[in-house]
Batch of 2 targets.
Target 1
Amino acid sequence: MARILITSALPYINGIKHLGNLAGSMLPADVWARFKRAQGHEVLYICATDEHGTPAELAAAAAGQDVRTYCDEQHQIQKAAGEAFGLSYDWFGRSSSAANQRLTQHFAAALEANGLIEERVDRMIYSIDDARFLPDRYVEGICPHCAYPSARGDQCDNCGRLLDPTDLIEPYSAVSGSRNLEVRDTRHLYLLQTNLADRIRTWIDSKADWQTLARSIALKHLDEGLIDRGITRDLKWGVPVVGPDGGPRPGMEGKVFYVWFDAPIEYIGATEEWAEANGGTWRDWWRTDEGADDVRYVQFMGKDNVAFHTVSFPATILGSGEPWKTVDTLKAFNWLNWYGGKFSTSQKRGVFMDQALELLPADYWRWRLTAYGPEHADSAFTWEDFQASTNKDLADVLGNFVNRIVKFTESRFDGVVPDAGEPGPVEAQLATDIASGIAEATAQFEAMEFRKAAQAIRAVWVLGNEYLQVAAPWTAFKTDPVRAAVGVRTGLNLVALFARLAAPIIPFSAEKIAASVGETDLSWPLATDDLLDRLPHGQSVAAAEVLFRKIEDAQVTEWAERFGGGEVEA
């Protein structure tokens, strides 16, 4: 049994997340965590809300709340949304936790002791009307690279380039809209990433098995040349910058650490929170000198977060000089687009997690976003494709199979697994084909090829439907009830198997499917297992409610009118 640490990119605190956020990090992390747990491994899946930085302050101000109250409420909202989607976090923490504050200050001290942090005088934008410096997203303006008119001072949403506020053309305050701005001196701490470039490259080069997307993004940033990164900001909300004695650092009173410095550290902080809440230990998950050598650490994230996790966070970990666990595998995802344009939290474009659950149960979305997600290229979400794939895969292939065989058992075999008859050549061939399908699904999950794994699972469901067409127990029952019993028993065992295969992706439906044939074991099956005669003969079965209702054209029309579709906002 392996020990596997899984983290997904921290969802930012400023509002409920959209389906693109879900598809690009949290959902695949959950699917893989469920798969590895089902294999019997010890899995720790950690996530948290990312609560510091300018967007939190701006969102709180817009809501008319102090930032702490705002973050308290939003954390609970996001936690509840994740649970409703079946995200099986072992812990969903908060970057504003005491653990993260202590760890962030610890890493800063370790880096400085190693000569990797220095104070510099920056030229920063100051708003005269707001009487404050304007870091990051407190400034908006025209992107100097793509001319996008609403670029923010940390990153352009259009082209994805990282920015500094002083890079923007025609900047203005995001607080007041004021253009009465000037550039003033202010002191900040800088992480000397340039001194770590060779170590980071060596570390990345050691990850030869990483997917092309993650490696290419990391190497691109290295090849373009690392810059020393400012890790403090003129903000009130965040991890305070402190001196050696733990009090305010002279000359840097009132400053906090940059959100992208402290946020990844929360992976460690959240693990500490989990340990404290559950009476466990956390250092043996993160310190290689205390037991973490045997941990496999896997990160899941969208491609826009890769640079921070392959350069900036490793710079912190490696630069500390301490034996911290670094990521073994980083699985990056492309973007799920909304009819060809980007989902956007800030611009409220697309379908968001809470809205999605108002329309359909979680498993409809989980299947679509896993089986057709943005794994190797950007993919577009459309209502029409969602309807077609859901109706075919879930309603026609899986749901119809389960309902047909269980209801037939109820009507012709007294609602129990029949005992009569022995399997024949058709069942033997089915067993061979099923074993091959399970081996394929297992291999694709192990490789974190989620689309391929889902299609391999669907292919096994198809095998079951094809078997029923050949065995035709409803026809055989009239002339050869013993042969019909074999077909029914095999079909009911396929129901149990289908539930086990489906469980990592559609866990709520898998439980219902398994329960319909009295199965409680949702562990991942082995290709070598005898899977077609596992259910006890005589065990009661009972058809569930309709597992998957088809999405109707009228619903698609209604949803397109409500959420848009077919036209992309500029």
Target 2
Amino acid sequence: MAELKDVRNDYYPVDTATLETNVALLAFKVATGDSLSTFQMVDQVIDDFVDPTGVDTGTSTNANIGGGYYSGVAEGGYFGSGSDGDLTTSGNVTHTVQNKYGSYDGDMVVKNYNNLTISAGHTMTVDQPCRGMLIYVDGDCTIDGTLSMLGKGANATPSASGGAGASHADGLMISYKKVGGVALTSGSDLSGCGPAAIAAVANHPTSGNGYVLQIPRVGGNGGATRSSNGGGNVGNVGDAGLNGTISTIYKQLSFGGGGSGGAYWDGNSCGGGDAVSGRGGHSTCWSGGTGGGGKMSGSTAYAGDDYGGQGGQGHNNHCGGSHSASGGMGNPCGLDVYTNSNSTTQYTGVSGTGGLLILMVRGNLTVGASGIITTEGVANSNSGRSLPGGCYGSGGSSGGGALAVLHGGTYSDSGSVTSAGGVGVNHGTGTGGTGGAGGKLIEQVIASIEGDMSLVSNTSTAEATPTVGDIVMLMEDGVGTATINTDIIAYISRDAGTNWSSAVTLVDEGNWGTNKRILVARNVDISSLAGTTSMRYKIDTANQSTTLDTRVHAVSLAWK
């Protein structure tokens, strides 16, 4: 009679290899669910690449983390998804702002082009003020027309929870790779810009050499008040891609403050004292500053609202005759004031403050002779105004927006790339102050690292010298399809990586999602390896390029 164990083995075989693979997969699931980057099991280590904790970053080469995986091709979502395809404009393009919070606020507009050409005579902009425009171009970009956030700054308080919410306390942050940059220790943060923007920068680099473009919550201050007779003061200029004070990793880029109003006093005043114009409004990470109100005769006019709000109201204290003082530029323009009765008229002409524009081009960027890229503030125009009796004290113009142009290939500019403040305008006497120029950064970045990766784990200590090792790996064919054991190769070490096994034989054991495969190497003989208990794995990729991007999401190394 057969023994029970013989019957079991003959008629109910147990597939322990499958069970072992499933245990590793369950461990990956636990790691993901608990946001664990690495943890130890009995004779096993699990690395789930939510961060670099389980990886020896000093020994690994060209291993770029982002989006929960390691890859030798670093761009990931760095230059967008290309989901908007190729575009050569055949007319003006006005992008619709999502999640509008009134007439002067809404989410950042995000576009993802493969290649982009804005033809001569055509303008690409947004349909109302908002929290910026982020344009990715995965290929080449040619600007012969106008790419504009002129006058599109948002009326939003960066520290407030309204609308799309508050920005990060340090402002907006966009990370990028740069030759000669410093070691990155943080990534991008577009909190407050809406879900599309937050998702878009999720795959920006968090390691390697580069910088973080930082746009502080508060930028340039508004121009100071103006006393007696004279033009308004210019708004303070925003930082222009300068290394910030928080850390050398940051390059700060900020908006310009609004110009103050002009002032006029002829000695005849009902309010007594000198004429003092309104100061310009302070800028934010989403808007240039607003213009202060103009002032006729004694006392002080109204300041422009901070955070991209309404321009300062004009003020008139003149006791003799009929005169006007104009409001400053903002969202909307400040009220104009007529005569000593201080009756007001809403200026219904152009409004606005300089907006935020970030253009990231992986290939070549060409700005032609007729090309314009602009985040300018708005001049406080005379057009459409009725200022009876002559204007004595003109409102200030708004500050320029922040402009970042990052390109991986060549850059050619024979046109105009500007973040200037709105020019001060004289409506009669006492010219309004010019808005401060916003910061502008034009920089060549690392477009992609299309190299082969060597991903080396940290050391885990076995309880006894193992003779057999197993590897289970979750990989993704991000672009193209990798040939296992050719384009993706794995090794095991018992002496902390001084010596390695021959390449193990990986087997495809099925899918764990779209373009995602489970690779397994079982019962790898490591008995003859140098060393004893200092266990490591190494994953190499080969033949990586723009057409082959092999991504490693998680690795299990077990031994016995």
